[in-house]
Design a protein that fits this description.
One of its GO terms (molecular function) is ATP-dependent protein folding chaperone. Strands 6, 7, 8, 9, 10, 11 and 12 form a 7-stranded mixed sheet that branches. The chain has a 3-stranded antiparallel sheet with strand order 3-14-17. A 3-stranded mixed sheet has the order 4-13-5. The relative contact order is 0.15. The radius of gyration is 32 Å and the shape is elongated. With 591 residues, the protein is α/β, with parallel strands linked by helices. Helix content is 50%, strand content 15%. Helix 4 packs parallel to helix 16, helix 8 crosses helix 9 and helix 12 packs across helix 15. The chain is built from 19 helices and 17 strands. The N and C termini lie far apart (75 Å).
Protein backbone atom coordinates (compact mmCIF):
# COMPACT_ATOMS: atom_id res chain seq x y z
CA UNK A 1 0.00 0.00 0.00
CA UNK A 2 1.45 3.30 -1.05
CA UNK A 3 2.30 5.68 1.71
CA UNK A 4 0.45 8.98 1.68
CA UNK A 5 2.53 11.92 2.79
CA UNK A 6 0.83 15.13 3.83
CA UNK A 7 2.39 18.38 2.69
CA UNK A 8 3.63 20.51 5.54
CA UNK A 9 1.87 23.91 5.62
CA UNK A 10 4.23 26.79 5.07
CA UNK A 11 4.28 29.88 7.24
CA UNK A 12 2.11 32.69 5.89
CA UNK A 13 4.92 35.12 6.67
CA UNK A 14 7.44 33.41 4.40
CA UNK A 15 5.49 31.99 1.49
CA UNK A 16 5.61 33.96 -1.73
CA UNK A 17 2.50 35.85 -2.73
CA UNK A 18 1.29 35.38 -6.31
CA UNK A 19 -1.28 37.97 -7.31
CA UNK A 20 -3.76 37.63 -10.13
CA UNK A 21 -3.12 39.73 -13.19
CA UNK A 22 -5.86 42.33 -12.65
CA UNK A 23 -4.91 43.11 -9.05
CA UNK A 24 -1.26 43.31 -10.01
CA UNK A 25 -2.03 45.75 -12.82
CA UNK A 26 -4.19 47.92 -10.54
CA UNK A 27 -1.45 48.13 -7.89
CA UNK A 28 1.22 48.90 -10.46
CA UNK A 29 -0.95 51.57 -12.10
CA UNK A 30 -1.63 53.22 -8.73
CA UNK A 31 2.02 53.15 -7.70
CA UNK A 32 3.24 54.50 -11.04
CA UNK A 33 0.70 57.32 -11.01
CA UNK A 34 1.62 58.32 -7.46
CA UNK A 35 5.33 58.15 -8.25
CA UNK A 36 4.79 60.42 -11.26
CA UNK A 37 3.35 63.07 -8.93
CA UNK A 38 6.31 62.66 -6.54
CA UNK A 39 8.81 62.96 -9.39
CA UNK A 40 7.12 66.17 -10.56
CA UNK A 41 7.94 68.00 -7.30
CA UNK A 42 11.19 66.22 -6.46
CA UNK A 43 13.35 68.80 -8.28
CA UNK A 44 11.91 71.53 -6.01
CA UNK A 45 13.37 70.05 -2.81
CA UNK A 46 16.03 71.91 -0.87
CA UNK A 47 17.69 75.35 -0.96
CA UNK A 48 18.97 74.75 -4.48
CA UNK A 49 15.72 73.28 -5.79
CA UNK A 50 14.16 74.48 -9.02
CA UNK A 51 11.04 76.66 -9.19
CA UNK A 52 7.86 75.80 -11.07
CA UNK A 53 5.92 78.19 -13.26
CA UNK A 54 2.22 77.36 -13.04
CA UNK A 55 -0.12 78.74 -15.69
CA UNK A 56 -3.79 78.44 -14.82
CA UNK A 57 -6.73 78.30 -17.24
CA UNK A 58 -7.71 81.92 -16.55
CA UNK A 59 -4.22 83.17 -17.47
CA UNK A 60 -2.87 83.51 -13.92
CA UNK A 61 0.85 82.77 -13.57
CA UNK A 62 2.39 81.48 -10.31
CA UNK A 63 6.11 80.99 -9.71
CA UNK A 64 6.84 78.87 -6.64
CA UNK A 65 8.69 75.86 -5.29
CA UNK A 66 6.25 75.21 -2.46
CA UNK A 67 5.11 71.60 -2.77
CA UNK A 68 1.59 72.21 -1.43
CA UNK A 69 0.98 75.06 -3.89
CA UNK A 70 2.32 73.10 -6.88
CA UNK A 71 0.23 70.02 -6.12
CA UNK A 72 -2.86 72.05 -5.28
CA UNK A 73 -2.76 73.70 -8.71
CA UNK A 74 -2.11 70.45 -10.61
CA UNK A 75 -5.11 68.81 -12.26
CA UNK A 76 -4.63 65.24 -11.05
CA UNK A 77 -7.25 62.76 -12.27
CA UNK A 78 -5.93 59.35 -11.16
CA UNK A 79 -7.40 58.45 -7.73
CA UNK A 80 -4.13 57.18 -6.22
CA UNK A 81 -2.26 60.25 -7.46
CA UNK A 82 -4.90 62.45 -5.80
CA UNK A 83 -3.99 60.78 -2.51
CA UNK A 84 -0.51 62.32 -2.75
CA UNK A 85 -2.07 65.73 -3.32
CA UNK A 86 -4.15 65.21 -0.16
CA UNK A 87 -1.00 63.98 1.60
CA UNK A 88 0.69 67.30 0.89
CA UNK A 89 -2.35 69.18 2.21
CA UNK A 90 -2.30 67.06 5.39
CA UNK A 91 1.37 67.89 5.98
CA UNK A 92 0.60 71.57 5.39
CA UNK A 93 -2.17 71.43 8.00
CA UNK A 94 -0.15 69.42 10.54
CA UNK A 95 3.23 71.15 10.29
CA UNK A 96 3.03 73.86 7.63
CA UNK A 97 6.44 72.93 6.20
CA UNK A 98 7.89 69.81 4.59
CA UNK A 99 5.15 69.53 1.97
CA UNK A 100 7.65 68.59 -0.74
CA UNK A 101 9.58 66.25 1.57
CA UNK A 102 6.54 64.18 2.49
CA UNK A 103 5.61 63.59 -1.16
CA UNK A 104 9.19 62.68 -2.14
CA UNK A 105 9.42 60.18 0.75
CA UNK A 106 6.08 58.65 -0.23
CA UNK A 107 7.29 58.26 -3.82
CA UNK A 108 10.50 56.53 -2.68
CA UNK A 109 8.52 54.19 -0.39
CA UNK A 110 6.20 53.26 -3.27
CA UNK A 111 9.22 52.45 -5.44
CA UNK A 112 10.55 50.07 -2.77
CA UNK A 113 7.08 48.55 -2.28
CA UNK A 114 6.87 47.80 -5.99
CA UNK A 115 10.14 45.84 -5.75
CA UNK A 116 8.88 43.93 -2.70
CA UNK A 117 5.62 43.06 -4.48
CA UNK A 118 7.59 41.86 -7.50
CA UNK A 119 9.57 39.57 -5.18
CA UNK A 120 6.33 37.95 -4.00
CA UNK A 121 5.79 39.55 -0.59
CA UNK A 122 2.16 39.99 0.44
CA UNK A 123 0.90 43.61 0.59
CA UNK A 124 -0.40 43.12 4.14
CA UNK A 125 3.03 41.99 5.35
CA UNK A 126 4.61 45.03 3.68
CA UNK A 127 1.98 47.35 5.20
CA UNK A 128 2.47 46.02 8.74
CA UNK A 129 6.25 46.23 8.42
CA UNK A 130 6.05 49.84 7.22
CA UNK A 131 3.95 50.73 10.24
CA UNK A 132 6.52 49.21 12.61
CA UNK A 133 9.36 50.96 10.79
CA UNK A 134 7.64 54.37 10.98
CA UNK A 135 7.03 53.95 14.72
CA UNK A 136 10.68 53.07 15.22
CA UNK A 137 11.71 56.04 13.04
CA UNK A 138 9.74 58.48 15.20
CA UNK A 139 11.49 57.10 18.30
CA UNK A 140 14.91 57.55 16.66
CA UNK A 141 14.10 61.12 15.62
CA UNK A 142 12.89 61.99 19.12
CA UNK A 143 16.16 60.66 20.57
CA UNK A 144 18.13 62.86 18.15
CA UNK A 145 16.13 66.02 18.96
CA UNK A 146 17.49 68.94 20.97
CA UNK A 147 15.14 70.56 23.55
CA UNK A 148 14.23 74.21 22.96
CA UNK A 149 13.03 76.99 25.22
CA UNK A 150 10.43 79.31 23.76
CA UNK A 151 12.36 82.27 25.16
CA UNK A 152 15.36 81.34 22.96
CA UNK A 153 14.58 83.77 20.16
CA UNK A 154 17.80 83.09 18.25
CA UNK A 155 17.03 79.37 17.86
CA UNK A 156 13.53 80.19 16.64
CA UNK A 157 14.96 82.58 14.05
CA UNK A 158 17.45 79.92 12.86
CA UNK A 159 14.63 77.43 12.32
CA UNK A 160 12.48 79.99 10.45
CA UNK A 161 15.50 80.93 8.29
CA UNK A 162 16.02 77.28 7.33
CA UNK A 163 12.44 77.14 6.09
CA UNK A 164 12.87 80.37 4.09
CA UNK A 165 16.22 79.40 2.55
CA UNK A 166 14.53 77.04 0.09
CA UNK A 167 12.07 79.67 -1.16
CA UNK A 168 12.17 82.10 -4.06
CA UNK A 169 12.52 84.98 -1.56
CA UNK A 170 15.40 83.31 0.32
CA UNK A 171 17.54 86.46 0.02
CA UNK A 172 15.10 88.21 2.37
CA UNK A 173 15.26 85.50 5.07
CA UNK A 174 17.17 87.83 7.44
CA UNK A 175 14.11 90.13 7.42
CA UNK A 176 11.23 87.65 7.22
CA UNK A 177 12.53 85.14 9.82
CA UNK A 178 12.64 87.60 12.81
CA UNK A 179 9.33 89.06 11.61
CA UNK A 180 7.72 85.58 11.67
CA UNK A 181 9.12 84.82 15.15
CA UNK A 182 7.95 88.15 16.60
CA UNK A 183 4.51 87.70 15.03
CA UNK A 184 3.95 84.27 16.58
CA UNK A 185 5.36 85.20 19.99
CA UNK A 186 3.08 88.26 20.14
CA UNK A 187 -0.08 86.15 19.74
CA UNK A 188 0.85 83.34 22.16
CA UNK A 189 -1.66 83.25 25.00
CA UNK A 190 0.02 82.67 28.41
CA UNK A 191 -3.05 80.69 29.48
CA UNK A 192 -2.48 78.29 26.56
CA UNK A 193 1.27 78.44 25.88
CA UNK A 194 1.23 75.42 23.56
CA UNK A 195 -1.49 76.75 21.25
CA UNK A 196 -1.04 79.26 18.42
CA UNK A 197 -3.87 80.30 16.11
CA UNK A 198 -2.39 81.71 12.91
CA UNK A 199 -5.72 83.40 12.18
CA UNK A 200 -4.63 85.96 14.78
CA UNK A 201 -1.87 87.03 12.36
CA UNK A 202 -3.32 88.94 9.43
CA UNK A 203 -1.23 89.29 6.28
CA UNK A 204 -1.98 92.35 4.12
CA UNK A 205 -0.42 92.57 0.64
CA UNK A 206 0.27 95.93 -1.02
CA UNK A 207 1.88 96.37 -4.42
CA UNK A 208 4.85 98.72 -4.53
CA UNK A 209 8.32 98.92 -3.03
CA UNK A 210 10.32 95.76 -2.40
CA UNK A 211 10.14 92.88 0.04
CA UNK A 212 12.61 94.83 2.21
CA UNK A 213 9.75 97.25 2.97
CA UNK A 214 7.72 94.47 4.61
CA UNK A 215 6.89 95.42 8.19
CA UNK A 216 5.17 94.19 11.33
CA UNK A 217 2.39 96.50 12.48
CA UNK A 218 1.14 96.46 16.07
CA UNK A 219 -2.41 97.31 15.16
CA UNK A 220 -4.63 97.17 12.09
CA UNK A 221 -3.96 97.80 8.40
CA UNK A 222 -6.72 98.22 5.81
CA UNK A 223 -5.82 97.81 2.15
CA UNK A 224 -8.17 100.64 1.17
CA UNK A 225 -8.33 104.38 1.56
CA UNK A 226 -10.61 106.34 3.83
CA UNK A 227 -13.81 107.55 2.21
CA UNK A 228 -13.34 111.27 1.65
CA UNK A 229 -15.61 111.83 -1.34
CA UNK A 230 -17.50 114.46 0.69
CA UNK A 231 -14.38 115.97 2.25
CA UNK A 232 -14.31 113.73 5.32
CA UNK A 233 -11.28 113.50 7.62
CA UNK A 234 -8.37 111.16 6.75
CA UNK A 235 -6.55 111.40 10.08
CA UNK A 236 -8.02 111.02 13.55
CA UNK A 237 -6.21 111.19 16.90
CA UNK A 238 -7.71 109.74 20.08
CA UNK A 239 -9.97 107.66 17.87
CA UNK A 240 -13.15 106.03 19.13
CA UNK A 241 -13.84 103.28 16.62
CA UNK A 242 -17.14 101.57 15.89
CA UNK A 243 -17.53 98.44 13.76
CA UNK A 244 -21.04 98.53 12.31
CA UNK A 245 -22.92 95.87 10.36
CA UNK A 246 -25.91 97.98 9.34
CA UNK A 247 -26.37 100.42 6.44
CA UNK A 248 -26.38 104.21 6.74
CA UNK A 249 -28.66 104.58 3.74
CA UNK A 250 -32.41 104.85 3.10
CA UNK A 251 -34.27 101.58 3.74
CA UNK A 252 -35.64 99.46 0.93
CA UNK A 253 -38.69 97.25 0.67
CA UNK A 254 -38.38 93.57 1.52
CA UNK A 255 -39.35 92.55 -2.00
CA UNK A 256 -38.15 93.91 -5.32
CA UNK A 257 -40.70 96.39 -6.58
CA UNK A 258 -40.97 99.84 -8.14
CA UNK A 259 -42.68 102.86 -6.63
CA UNK A 260 -43.99 105.43 -9.09
CA UNK A 261 -44.25 109.00 -7.76
CA UNK A 262 -46.11 111.41 -10.01
CA UNK A 263 -46.42 114.41 -7.67
CA UNK A 264 -43.45 116.71 -7.00
CA UNK A 265 -44.61 117.37 -3.47
CA UNK A 266 -44.57 113.64 -2.74
CA UNK A 267 -41.09 113.40 -4.25
CA UNK A 268 -39.86 116.23 -2.03
CA UNK A 269 -41.45 114.54 0.95
CA UNK A 270 -39.64 111.25 0.18
CA UNK A 271 -36.27 113.04 -0.12
CA UNK A 272 -36.92 114.93 3.10
CA UNK A 273 -37.77 111.73 4.95
CA UNK A 274 -34.58 110.12 3.64
CA UNK A 275 -32.51 113.05 4.88
CA UNK A 276 -34.18 112.99 8.28
CA UNK A 277 -33.69 109.20 8.54
CA UNK A 278 -29.98 109.40 7.78
CA UNK A 279 -29.47 112.51 9.92
CA UNK A 280 -31.15 110.78 12.88
CA UNK A 281 -28.77 107.82 12.60
CA UNK A 282 -25.69 110.04 12.42
CA UNK A 283 -26.81 112.05 15.45
CA UNK A 284 -27.08 108.83 17.48
CA UNK A 285 -23.58 107.81 16.31
CA UNK A 286 -22.10 111.22 17.16
CA UNK A 287 -23.76 111.24 20.59
CA UNK A 288 -21.62 108.30 21.71
CA UNK A 289 -18.40 110.16 20.87
CA UNK A 290 -17.57 107.90 17.92
CA UNK A 291 -15.27 109.53 15.36
CA UNK A 292 -14.18 106.54 13.21
CA UNK A 293 -16.62 104.18 11.47
CA UNK A 294 -15.69 100.80 10.03
CA UNK A 295 -18.63 99.78 7.83
CA UNK A 296 -19.09 96.16 6.74
CA UNK A 297 -19.69 95.56 3.05
CA UNK A 298 -23.40 95.13 2.34
CA UNK A 299 -24.99 92.83 -0.23
CA UNK A 300 -28.56 94.05 0.30
CA UNK A 301 -28.10 97.72 -0.57
CA UNK A 302 -25.45 100.42 -0.50
CA UNK A 303 -23.80 100.57 2.93
CA UNK A 304 -23.43 104.34 2.58
CA UNK A 305 -24.71 106.89 0.08
CA UNK A 306 -23.33 110.24 -1.03
CA UNK A 307 -25.83 111.94 1.25
CA UNK A 308 -24.78 109.93 4.32
CA UNK A 309 -21.09 110.50 3.52
CA UNK A 310 -21.82 114.24 3.33
CA UNK A 311 -23.44 114.27 6.78
CA UNK A 312 -20.66 112.09 8.25
CA UNK A 313 -18.04 114.50 6.91
CA UNK A 314 -19.97 117.39 8.48
CA UNK A 315 -19.91 115.51 11.79
CA UNK A 316 -16.09 115.02 11.47
CA UNK A 317 -16.43 111.23 11.44
CA UNK A 318 -13.81 109.27 9.50
CA UNK A 319 -15.32 106.49 7.36
CA UNK A 320 -13.68 103.27 6.15
CA UNK A 321 -16.24 101.31 4.14
CA UNK A 322 -16.44 97.92 2.43
CA UNK A 323 -14.86 95.97 5.28
CA UNK A 324 -15.08 92.28 4.42
CA UNK A 325 -17.37 90.09 6.50
CA UNK A 326 -14.63 87.53 7.26
CA UNK A 327 -12.41 90.31 8.70
CA UNK A 328 -14.94 91.44 11.30
CA UNK A 329 -13.89 88.85 13.91
CA UNK A 330 -10.21 89.78 13.60
CA UNK A 331 -10.95 93.51 13.76
CA UNK A 332 -13.17 93.27 16.83
CA UNK A 333 -10.64 91.02 18.61
CA UNK A 334 -7.84 93.48 17.86
CA UNK A 335 -9.79 96.59 18.89
CA UNK A 336 -11.34 94.81 21.88
CA UNK A 337 -14.78 96.06 20.83
CA UNK A 338 -18.12 94.59 19.78
CA UNK A 339 -19.70 94.67 16.31
CA UNK A 340 -22.92 96.69 16.19
CA UNK A 341 -25.73 95.20 14.10
CA UNK A 342 -28.41 97.87 14.68
CA UNK A 343 -28.42 101.61 15.27
CA UNK A 344 -30.54 101.08 18.39
CA UNK A 345 -27.70 99.07 19.94
CA UNK A 346 -25.09 101.79 19.40
CA UNK A 347 -23.46 102.31 22.80
CA UNK A 348 -20.21 103.97 23.91
CA UNK A 349 -19.08 100.77 25.69
CA UNK A 350 -19.07 98.90 22.36
CA UNK A 351 -16.42 101.20 20.86
CA UNK A 352 -12.71 100.53 20.47
CA UNK A 353 -10.05 103.13 21.31
CA UNK A 354 -6.81 103.94 19.50
CA UNK A 355 -4.25 106.76 19.61
CA UNK A 356 -4.14 107.28 15.87
CA UNK A 357 -6.06 106.31 12.73
CA UNK A 358 -4.53 107.75 9.56
CA UNK A 359 -4.45 107.30 5.83
CA UNK A 360 -0.94 106.61 4.49
CA UNK A 361 0.24 106.75 0.88
CA UNK A 362 2.14 103.68 -0.32
CA UNK A 363 3.32 103.69 -3.92
CA UNK A 364 0.38 104.37 -6.18
CA UNK A 365 -2.22 103.43 -3.56
CA UNK A 366 -3.21 104.24 -0.01
CA UNK A 367 -3.78 102.25 3.16
CA UNK A 368 -5.29 103.04 6.54
CA UNK A 369 -3.28 102.29 9.70
CA UNK A 370 -4.72 101.97 13.19
CA UNK A 371 -2.00 102.19 15.87
CA UNK A 372 -1.80 102.69 19.62
CA UNK A 373 -4.85 100.53 20.33
CA UNK A 374 -5.94 100.51 23.97
CA UNK A 375 -6.35 97.04 25.55
CA UNK A 376 -5.39 95.47 22.22
CA UNK A 377 -6.15 91.79 21.74
CA UNK A 378 -3.43 89.22 21.05
CA UNK A 379 -3.29 89.84 17.31
CA UNK A 380 -0.81 91.37 14.89
CA UNK A 381 -0.67 92.45 11.25
CA UNK A 382 2.07 91.94 8.68
CA UNK A 383 2.21 94.32 5.71
CA UNK A 384 3.95 92.64 2.75
CA UNK A 385 5.36 94.81 -0.04
CA UNK A 386 6.73 93.76 -3.42
CA UNK A 387 7.56 95.04 -6.88
CA UNK A 388 5.03 92.76 -8.61
CA UNK A 389 2.18 90.46 -7.69
CA UNK A 390 4.20 87.26 -8.27
CA UNK A 391 6.81 88.30 -5.70
CA UNK A 392 4.16 89.38 -3.20
CA UNK A 393 2.25 86.10 -3.49
CA UNK A 394 5.42 84.02 -3.10
CA UNK A 395 6.52 86.15 -0.13
CA UNK A 396 3.13 85.49 1.50
CA UNK A 397 3.46 81.70 0.97
CA UNK A 398 7.03 81.73 2.29
CA UNK A 399 6.06 83.76 5.33
CA UNK A 400 3.17 81.37 6.01
CA UNK A 401 5.62 78.44 6.05
CA UNK A 402 7.92 80.31 8.42
CA UNK A 403 4.99 81.11 10.72
CA UNK A 404 4.00 77.43 10.70
CA UNK A 405 7.56 76.39 11.59
CA UNK A 406 7.56 78.71 14.62
CA UNK A 407 4.09 77.43 15.55
CA UNK A 408 5.44 73.86 15.46
CA UNK A 409 8.24 74.82 17.84
CA UNK A 410 5.76 76.45 20.21
CA UNK A 411 3.57 73.33 20.31
CA UNK A 412 6.43 70.76 20.32
CA UNK A 413 9.62 72.33 21.57
CA UNK A 414 12.33 70.20 19.96
CA UNK A 415 14.79 70.92 17.15
CA UNK A 416 16.67 68.53 14.89
CA UNK A 417 19.33 69.06 12.28
CA UNK A 418 18.46 69.54 8.61
CA UNK A 419 20.48 68.90 5.48
CA UNK A 420 19.51 65.23 5.20
CA UNK A 421 21.12 64.38 8.57
CA UNK A 422 18.02 62.86 10.24
CA UNK A 423 17.10 60.81 7.15
CA UNK A 424 20.55 59.26 6.75
CA UNK A 425 20.71 58.52 10.50
CA UNK A 426 17.28 56.90 10.29
CA UNK A 427 18.43 54.84 7.32
CA UNK A 428 21.51 53.67 9.22
CA UNK A 429 19.70 52.75 12.45
CA UNK A 430 16.73 51.11 10.72
CA UNK A 431 19.13 49.15 8.51
CA UNK A 432 20.86 47.80 11.63
CA UNK A 433 17.48 47.03 13.25
CA UNK A 434 16.30 45.12 10.16
CA UNK A 435 19.10 42.57 10.69
CA UNK A 436 17.60 41.65 14.06
CA UNK A 437 14.12 41.05 12.65
CA UNK A 438 13.07 37.67 11.25
CA UNK A 439 11.39 36.71 8.00
CA UNK A 440 9.90 39.16 5.56
CA UNK A 441 9.74 42.00 8.10
CA UNK A 442 13.50 42.39 7.95
CA UNK A 443 13.43 42.80 4.16
CA UNK A 444 10.58 45.35 4.37
CA UNK A 445 12.25 47.44 7.07
CA UNK A 446 15.50 47.45 5.13
CA UNK A 447 13.61 48.70 2.07
CA UNK A 448 12.05 51.41 4.26
CA UNK A 449 15.55 52.44 5.37
CA UNK A 450 16.79 52.58 1.78
CA UNK A 451 13.82 54.70 0.73
CA UNK A 452 14.70 57.41 3.26
CA UNK A 453 18.03 57.98 1.51
CA UNK A 454 16.08 59.69 -1.28
CA UNK A 455 16.20 62.99 0.70
CA UNK A 456 20.03 63.35 0.86
CA UNK A 457 20.28 62.00 -2.70
CA UNK A 458 17.82 64.64 -3.94
CA UNK A 459 19.45 67.47 -1.97
CA UNK A 460 22.83 66.64 -3.50
CA UNK A 461 21.39 66.18 -6.99
CA UNK A 462 19.46 69.48 -6.93
CA UNK A 463 22.59 71.30 -5.73
CA UNK A 464 24.59 69.96 -8.68
CA UNK A 465 26.85 67.78 -6.52
CA UNK A 466 28.05 64.22 -7.09
CA UNK A 467 25.26 62.49 -5.21
CA UNK A 468 26.99 59.09 -4.99
CA UNK A 469 30.15 60.55 -3.47
CA UNK A 470 28.27 62.91 -1.14
CA UNK A 471 25.85 60.29 0.23
CA UNK A 472 28.65 57.72 0.62
CA UNK A 473 30.70 60.19 2.67
CA UNK A 474 27.58 61.13 4.65
CA UNK A 475 26.97 57.46 5.51
CA UNK A 476 30.60 57.12 6.60
CA UNK A 477 30.44 60.17 8.88
CA UNK A 478 27.25 58.91 10.53
CA UNK A 479 28.78 55.45 10.98
CA UNK A 480 31.57 57.19 12.93
CA UNK A 481 28.98 58.69 15.30
CA UNK A 482 28.51 62.19 13.81
CA UNK A 483 24.71 62.15 13.91
CA UNK A 484 24.45 65.87 13.05
CA UNK A 485 26.56 65.63 9.88
CA UNK A 486 24.58 66.82 6.87
CA UNK A 487 24.91 68.15 3.34
CA UNK A 488 25.98 71.79 3.19
CA UNK A 489 24.73 72.68 -0.28
CA UNK A 490 26.36 76.10 -0.22
CA UNK A 491 29.85 74.76 0.48
CA UNK A 492 29.25 71.54 -1.44
CA UNK A 493 30.55 69.28 1.32
CA UNK A 494 29.58 67.43 4.50
CA UNK A 495 29.63 69.57 7.65
CA UNK A 496 28.11 69.62 11.13
CA UNK A 497 24.77 71.02 10.11
CA UNK A 498 23.83 72.21 13.60
CA UNK A 499 26.86 74.50 13.67
CA UNK A 500 25.72 75.89 10.32
CA UNK A 501 22.36 76.82 11.95
CA UNK A 502 20.40 74.57 9.56
CA UNK A 503 17.72 73.30 11.91
CA UNK A 504 14.06 72.36 11.66
CA UNK A 505 11.25 71.45 14.08
CA UNK A 506 10.98 67.83 15.17
CA UNK A 507 7.27 67.89 14.34
CA UNK A 508 7.98 68.53 10.63
CA UNK A 509 10.11 65.38 10.25
CA UNK A 510 7.98 63.07 12.40
CA UNK A 511 4.80 64.25 10.66
CA UNK A 512 6.37 63.69 7.22
CA UNK A 513 7.45 60.12 8.08
CA UNK A 514 4.12 59.20 9.68
CA UNK A 515 1.86 60.70 7.01
CA UNK A 516 3.91 59.34 4.09
CA UNK A 517 3.80 55.84 5.60
CA UNK A 518 0.04 56.00 6.15
CA UNK A 519 -0.54 57.10 2.56
CA UNK A 520 1.68 54.34 1.13
CA UNK A 521 -0.02 51.69 3.29
CA UNK A 522 -3.39 52.83 2.03
CA UNK A 523 -2.29 52.65 -1.62
CA UNK A 524 -0.84 49.16 -1.02
CA UNK A 525 -4.14 47.86 0.32
CA UNK A 526 -6.01 48.84 -2.87
CA UNK A 527 -6.37 45.86 -5.23
CA UNK A 528 -9.20 47.09 -7.44
CA UNK A 529 -10.89 50.26 -8.66
CA UNK A 530 -14.67 50.14 -8.93
CA UNK A 531 -16.36 52.76 -11.09
CA UNK A 532 -19.88 53.56 -9.91
CA UNK A 533 -22.22 54.96 -12.56
CA UNK A 534 -24.87 57.54 -11.81
CA UNK A 535 -28.37 56.09 -12.26
CA UNK A 536 -29.60 59.04 -14.30
CA UNK A 537 -31.71 56.83 -16.57
CA UNK A 538 -33.72 55.46 -13.69
CA UNK A 539 -34.26 58.96 -12.30
CA UNK A 540 -35.41 60.19 -15.71
CA UNK A 541 -37.84 57.28 -16.04
CA UNK A 542 -39.38 58.14 -12.65
CA UNK A 543 -39.67 61.77 -13.68
CA UNK A 544 -41.41 60.84 -16.92
CA UNK A 545 -43.82 58.60 -15.04
CA UNK A 546 -44.75 61.50 -12.77
CA UNK A 547 -45.04 63.78 -15.80
CA UNK A 548 -47.56 61.37 -17.33
CA UNK A 549 -49.81 61.96 -14.35
CA UNK A 550 -49.39 65.73 -14.21
CA UNK A 551 -49.21 66.57 -17.88
CA UNK A 552 -50.31 65.07 -21.14
CA UNK A 553 -50.32 65.45 -24.88
CA UNK A 554 -47.53 67.35 -26.53
CA UNK A 555 -45.38 67.81 -23.41
CA UNK A 556 -45.30 64.07 -22.66
CA UNK A 557 -44.45 63.14 -26.25
CA UNK A 558 -41.71 65.76 -26.34
CA UNK A 559 -40.12 64.39 -23.15
CA UNK A 560 -40.34 60.84 -24.48
CA UNK A 561 -38.58 61.79 -27.71
CA UNK A 562 -35.81 63.56 -25.81
CA UNK A 563 -35.39 60.60 -23.47
CA UNK A 564 -35.13 58.05 -26.27
CA UNK A 565 -32.66 60.26 -28.16
CA UNK A 566 -30.31 60.65 -25.20
CA UNK A 567 -30.65 56.97 -24.35
CA UNK A 568 -29.48 55.99 -27.83
CA UNK A 569 -26.68 58.55 -27.58
CA UNK A 570 -25.48 56.99 -24.32
CA UNK A 571 -25.60 53.58 -25.98
CA UNK A 572 -23.48 54.74 -28.90
CA UNK A 573 -20.93 56.54 -26.73
CA UNK A 574 -20.51 53.96 -23.97
CA UNK A 575 -21.41 50.81 -25.95
CA UNK A 576 -23.29 49.47 -22.94
CA UNK A 577 -26.70 47.84 -23.12
CA UNK A 578 -27.78 48.82 -19.64
CA UNK A 579 -28.71 52.35 -20.74
CA UNK A 580 -30.98 51.02 -23.48
CA UNK A 581 -32.58 48.58 -21.06
CA UNK A 582 -33.47 51.46 -18.75
CA UNK A 583 -34.86 53.38 -21.71
CA UNK A 584 -37.04 50.48 -22.89
CA UNK A 585 -38.37 49.88 -19.37
CA UNK A 586 -39.29 53.54 -19.03
CA UNK A 587 -41.03 53.63 -22.43
CA UNK A 588 -43.00 50.46 -21.69
CA UNK A 589 -44.13 51.88 -18.35
CA UNK A 590 -45.25 55.10 -20.01
CA UNK A 591 -47.10 53.40 -22.87
Amino acid sequence: MAAVTAAQPRSSKTESYVDNKRKEDIRQANIKAARAVADAVRTSLGPKGMDKMISTANGEVIITNDGATILNKMEVLQPAAKMLVDLSKSQDSAAGDGTTTVVVIAGALLKQCLLLLTNGIHPTVISDSLHKASTKAVDVLTAMAVPLEISDRESLIKSASTSLNSKVVSQYSTLLAPLAVDSVLSVVDPAKPDMVDLRDIKIVKKLGGTVDDTELVKGLVFDKKASHAAGGPTRMENAKIAVIQFQISPPKTDIEQSIVVSDYTQMDRILKEERNYILGMIKKIKATGCNVLLIQKSILRDAVTDLSLHYLAKAKIMVIKDVEREDIEFITKTLNCLPIANIEHFRAEKLGHADLVEEVSLGDGKIVKVTGIKDMGRTTTVLIRGSNQLVIDEAERSLHDALCVVRCLVSKRFLIAGGGAPEIELSRQLGAWSKVLHGMEGYCVRSFAEALEVIPYTLAENAGLNRIAIVTELRNRHAQGEINAGINVRKGQITNILEENVVQPLLVSTSAITLATECVRMILKIDDIVNVRDSTMVSTAKYLLSSRILYGGFFLNFLLCLFVFFSKLCFLVNNETIHMQHAHLAIQALL
